[in-house]
Amino acid sequence: MRIGVTNQKGGAGKTTTTLNVAGALNQRGHDVLVIDLDPQGHATEGLGFEELYDDSDRDSLFDVLPDIDRMGDLEQLVVEHQEVDVVPSHERMINAEDELANVMKREERLDMLLNESDADGRWDFVLVDCPPNLGVLTDNAIVATGNVLIPAQAKSTSIRAIELLFKQLRSIESAFGEVDELALVANEVGVDGEAEEMMEWFKDVFEDRERCEVFEIRKRVALQRAWNAGVSIFEHDEDSDMESVYLDVAEHLEGFVDD
Question: Which DSSP state fits 191?
Answer without folding.
Answer: S
